[in-house]
Design brief:
Length: 303
């Protein structure tokens, strides 16, 4: 190779690095300039901090019951203690229960999304790469689960395995892996015919190496955006299951369980249902705002 050719090749290779770095920095700046996405990220970070520091932030234990102080209004006091959000039907501090309930919702939602993403990504990679009956079997399994009513599936799983935090995560992962699998499979089908994938195969790279090193990085952007949307969906599903008594069991609180307990007091103490409802609304809204910002920032057509 001539010196000019070597310089041209070196220049091309060196020139691709700033381009990739510049593209990543442009995406980061675009996300930082999105006020809605930053507001969503800030709200989620605040909820995560509150959930992590619940033992230090909560004014009382989440199951500290006393019938003499039941259904106290906000900012009431009893024996020198102030209840900023009042007490519930069993005399428990509502603010403390809200703070501890954030642990359940965020933990279950995050672990459910992580488990669903891992399973769905693996299934999507395999279904998109292998033609013929392996991919067909995997995707038909996903279609069957999508056709089956999810609430009935959740009831069946919890009735068979029992109500616990791990089983709740399992139920939520069963809900989300199908979505990840379909999105990843579509990305693999779009990426597999490209020249750099065919060049890697021609150079002797195996399917596992090509999937992990060349195709998987191209699926990270849609997986990231989808994870934020699915996190919001799983927060709602966890609240729904807890509202129906299929989620986390007493005495540990959850926002859905607090809504269920407050149904009998809608006419007399309506605020008991407002507090957990607002917490669910803010968390879901924040996740959706962050997801919209990530979608716009990671859009390759916008870079």
């Amino acid at each position: 190779m001539s010196a000019d050719g070597a310089r041209m090749l070196t220049g091309d290779v060196e020139g691709t690095i700033p381009v990739r770095r510049g593209r990543g920095s442009r995406r980061g700046r675009r996300l930082l300039r999105d006020p809605a996405a930053m507001a969503g990220a800030l709200i989620l970070a605040l909820f995560a901090l509150v959930a992590y520091a619940a033992p230090a932030l909560a004014p009382a234990h989440y199951d500290d019951q006393r019938s003499a102080r039941r259904l106290r209004p906000a900012f009431s006091t009893d024996e020198g203690r102030r209840f900023l959000l009042g007490t519930d039907q069993l005399g428990r501090d509502v603010l403390s229960r809200l703070i501890y309930a954030a642990q359940v919702s965020l933990l279950v939602g995050a672990v459910g999304v992580l488990a669903g993403a891992l399973i769905g990504t693996l299934v999507g990679l395999l279904a998109g790469w292998f033609d013929g009956w392996p991919g067909t079997v995997l995707m038909r399994t996903a279609d069957i689960q999508l056709a089956f009513p999810y609430l009935l599936l959740a009831i069946a799983v919890i009735a068979f395995f029992g109500s616990s935090l791990s089983n709740l995560v399992l139920v939520l992962a069963l809900r989300s892996w199908v979505v990840f699998a379909r999105v990843v499979r579509a990305s693999v089908l779009a990426t597999k015919p490209l020249e750099f994938v065919q060049a890697a195969l021609a150079s002797g790279a195996g399917p596992a190496s090509v999937l992990i090193r060349h195709i998987l990085p191209h699926t990270l952007a849609p997986i990231t955006v989808l994870a934020t949307v699915e996190f919001a969906n799983l927060i709602l599903l966890e609240a729904t299951l807890s509202f129906l008594g299929l989620g986390v069991q007493p005495p540990f609180p959850s926002w859905g369980m607090m809504l269920s307990d407050a149904r009998a007091y809608l006419l007399t103490d309506w605020q008991l249902s407002v507090y957990p409802g607002v917490a669910i609304m803010l968390t879901v809204m924040a996740a959706n705002l962050l997801g919209d910002g990530l979608r716009d920032a990671l859009d390759p057509q916008g870079n």
